[in-house]
Specification:
By secondary structure, the protein is mainly α. The protein has one domain: FAD/NAD(P)-binding domain. Helices cover 49% and strands 8% of the residues. The chain has a two-stranded antiparallel sheet with strand order 1-2. The longest helix has 19 residues. The chain is elongated. About 14% of the residues have low confidence.
């Protein structure tokens, strides 16, 4: 069996959907919680965020998940094709398990 992808492999969920969205929502929630502690007498502050670092971390996560989940693929351009690298054992885990591992 072969899969041919005209753009980047991994589909919507890995490349532009749930995974990248959650990778940005997690630090946004942490930032919000830092400035809005619900316990009286506890003072916290959200002192800033490095958007560039957050975007870099998101890109690294997407690249790593794409490499782990999109195995045994061949990308074809014209008459040439190149097989993907060896199968990764992490590809057998659920997407949620891979996301938890990647974010930890």
């Amino acid at each position: 069996m072969a899969l041919v992808e005209s753009n980047v492999v991994g589909g919507t969920c890995v490349n532009v959907g749930r995974i990248p969205s959650k990778a940005m929502l997690a630090p946004a929630e942490a930032y919000f919680r830092a400035g809005h502690h619900p316990v009286a007498g506890i003072h916290t502050a959200a002192v800033g965020a490095d958007l560039g670092a957050m975007l870099d971390a998101r890109a690294e996560l997407v690249d790593r998940l794409r490499a782990e989940t999109c195995v045994d693929l061949a990308r074809t351009t014209g008459s040439r094709s190149a097989p993907a690298g060896p199968r990764s054992s992490t590809a057998k885990r659920s997407p949620a398990a891979r996301l938890r591992a990647a974010l930890s």
